[in-house]
Write a structure and sequence with these properties.
By secondary structure, this protein is an alpha/beta fold. Helix content is about 30%, strand content about 20%. α2 packs across α3 (about 50-60) and α5 packs across α6. The chain binds adenosine-5'-monophosphate-propyl ester.
């Protein structure tokens, strides 16, 4: 991984405004004040084994107990609760039914065209069991990997939980990814089974998911995939291969409503989820059963301060980790009511989110800063038309939130009464790592505040030495935690080197490198300053610049490509690509559009470059490395500063300025 300092890690953000929770909120909160939080953090620091042991015993139901809390013999391949036996679908459903919650609403689902459904915990159990039996009937076995490529419909949740119930691993691929990305993930994960839908609705358009599956299979994944299950959502005629494709409703029609949960070991894999890194190939982040169950459960309970009557809504897609941990596993493990919405705000309904909050009296709302910034742009008149008085807590995730957007969120959506939890975490961490506990912490707009109990973070320089307060540096986590990723699927060496051996080890201790720059201010508040590697965040979607470069150079016209992020007032960052062409190709608007579409076909719509600049030459050092720092300045229209003496040919700069 190459570090860059694009976010200028010494660039100090200042924010002196402090927003305490209301007395009323704190009084009713699970963790009521800062002292209580510190007490928990100290208990975890003093005896972390006891701390995790107590929570694992009190929060999770085990079929068989564990003897060891943390096995660090083969660090950094840490094992948590290794001898224990459990099933996460049992913890998410059955135990609540045993505790009298059969008739409590588990899932509220709102479709984009206006259709809706709700499922109680006992109905959810039936759906999951039928799905699990359906999967078994076509030969899905414990340990098999099932790919889920679906719209935001209840069946996506049933499919995930059904896999967990029978011990199959799921690999959910976001429905916005292209057939090419899907193919890569199917092959890398060796997925024998795919669950998809005839299509889905997004922004009033129909998305052809099954068609993308067919293309992925034709392009090579057919050698692995044996069966494709198709949910009928948009009810359009689609191609069905009679030897391979099955309709979900036909498969489930006569399935038994009960399926015994498989007895899983703590460290059995629960899922693989692909995310972008600093190489061209996305990495399959592996999470296992017990640690992930505990961490998604506990963080949900602490951060969202869940109460029995809450209607909780996270606007993410289940194709991302936020959807895994905070639409499905965290809320259900806590016996909460979780809302799933198929749509997004769109030209025909800019108030879509507020309509959902009003309709279902949502009490906790969790979304991304990009969404908040775009709401700000379209004006408060829109949310002001709706009754948002049910809200009591707001959350954000995925990217830094600028103080202006934070204040708007607090004021316009939260009517100044709702605390905001700005939650920092990653696909790799399994659950939230840094966030205010809403009843206990005075928030500062733009700061994710403090690490959660059991999580020790620090800011270090490139030699792994702690920096002073207010100095920027690299964010590390000093100890393993239960929800941590266990490995990269098929690449344990990369897991070890890029996350745990990135900094020189002190006292043979492994520390986890997150890939983010951050600063801790003199009050101890943490400020995330963005990625310090070649990863960019577009509308909170994580993309590797090399991934987009690989997509571009796979086009016949492209000789070389370099991709950088440019600051964007709504999306956080947007993608700018610099491209040099092969000899026989000419620069033209048509070609630029073709290249943009090519990236969409290779990766998906989220990776579409905002701008492509075609130039004869890219700025390189004498050793042939592209100087991205220069491209970043050019992309954002800034003056090129810093040392350019290593540039091989300085005339390239003038040329590039003309082309930009
Ligand atoms: O750069 C950080 C940013 O998102 C990255 C993780 O992306 P992903 O694995 O896709 O997970 C996103 C949802 C958990 C981090 O390395 N990030 C996430 N949350 C925040 C954030 N940056 C600033 N503030 C946050 N609250």
């Amino acid at each position: 991984m190459t570090l860059n300092k694009k976010n200028s890690i010494n660039n100090i953000l200042e924010e002196s405004r402090i927003f305490p929770p209301s007395k009323e909120f704190s009084k009713n909160a699970l963790i009521k004040d800062f002292k209580e939080l510190i007490k928990l953090k100290e208990a975890a620091k003093k005896d972390s084994n006891k701390f995790w042991d107590d929570y694992a015993k009190s929060e999770i139901d085990w079929f068989e107990p564990y003897q060891t809390v943390l096995d660090d013999k083969n660090a950094p391949f840490f094992k948590w609760f290794p001898e224990g036996k459990l099933n996460i679908s049992y913890n998410c459903i059955d135990r609540h039914i045993k505790n009298g919650l059969s008739d409590k609403t588990a899932l509220i689902w709102q479709g984009e065209p206006g259709d809706d459904k709700t499922f109680t915990y006992s109905e959810l159990l039936e759906e999951v069991c039928k799905t699990a039996n359906g999967l078994k009937s076509i030969g899905v076995k414990k340990g098999d990997l099932v790919c889920i490529y679906m719209p935001m419909i209840p069946e996506a949740m049933f499919a995930m939980l059904a896999c967990a119930r029978i011990g199959a691993q799921h690999s959910v691929v976001f429905g916005g990814f292209s057939s090419e990305s899907l193919k890569e993930r199917l092959i890398d994960g060796n997925a024998k089974f795919v669950i998809t839908a005839d299509g889905g609705y997004r922004k009033d358009k129909e998305i052809e998911l099954k068609n993308a599956v067919d293309l992925a299979l034709e392009a090579g994944a057919n050698e692995i995939v044996e069966k494709v299950i198709v949910v009928q959502r948009i009810k359009k005629e689609i191609y069905m291969d009679s030897s391979r494709d099955l309709w979900w409703h036909e498969l489930l029609q006569n399935q038994d409503k009960w399926c015994e949960p498989e007895i899983m070991n703590s460290e059995d894999r629960l899922f693989v989820l692909y995310t972008s890194g600093s190489t061209g190939k996305p990495k399959g982040v592996v999470h296992t059963t017990a640690g992930y169950n505990l961490w998604s459960h506990l963080t949900f309970k602490w951060v969202f301060d869940i109460k029995k009557d809450d209607i909780y809504w996270c606007t993410a897609d289940v194709g991302w980790i936020t959807g895994h941990s905070y639409i499905v596993y965290g809320p259900l493990s806590n016996g909460a009511t979780t809302l799933m919405y198929e749509g997004v705000p769109r030209a025909s309904n800019l108030g879509a989110f507020w309509e959902v909050i009003q309709k279902y009296k949502v009490t906790i709302f969790y979304t991304a800063p990009t969404a908040i910034r775009s709401f700000m742009k379209s004006g408060r008149e829109i949310p002001d038309k709706y009754d948002l008085s049910s809200l009591r807590l707001l959350g954000t995730v995925g990217e830094p939130i600028n103080p202006e957007a934070w204040i708007w969120y607090k004021n316009v959506i939260g009517k100044d009464k709702c605390p905001i939890v700005d939650t920092w975490w990653q696909t790799e961490t399994g659950g939230i790592m840094v966030s205010p506990l809403p009843g206990a912490v005075n928030a500062k707009p733009g700061s994710a505040t403090f690490s959660l109990p059991g999580i020790e973070v620090s800011i270090v320089n490139k030699d792994g030495e702690e920096v002073n307060s207010n100095e920027g540096g690299y964010l590390i986590v000093k100890k393993p935690w239960p929800g941590m990723m266990r490995t990269i699927h098929g690449d344990p060496d990369r897991f070890k080197k890029s996350y745990w051996e990135f900094f020189p080890m002190k006292d043979k201790k492994y520390v986890y490198f997150a890939g983010d720059g951050a600063r801790i201010d003199s009050d101890g508040y943490l400020w995330i300053m963005g990625r310090v590697d070649d990863v960019i965040s577009v509308s909170g979607h994580r993309l590797g610049t090399m991934e987009i470069e690989s997509a571009l150079v796979s086009h016949e016209s492209v000789a070389e490509a370099a991709v950088v992020g440019r600051k964007d007032s709504i999306k956080g960052e947007s993608i700018v690509a610099f491209v040099s062409l092969e000899k026989n190709f000419q620069k033209s608007l048509n070609l630029i559009n073709e290249l943009k579409q090519h990236v969409v076909n290779e990766i998906g719509i989220i990776a579409k470059p905002e701008k492509i600049i075609i130039s004869d030459a890219l700025p390189k050092t004498r050793s042939g490395k592209i100087m991205r720092r220069i491209l970043r300045s050019l992309a954002s229209g800034q003056k090129i500063s810093g040392d350019i003496s290593t540039l091989e040919d300085s005339s390239v700069l003038e040329k590039l300025k003309e082309d930009s």
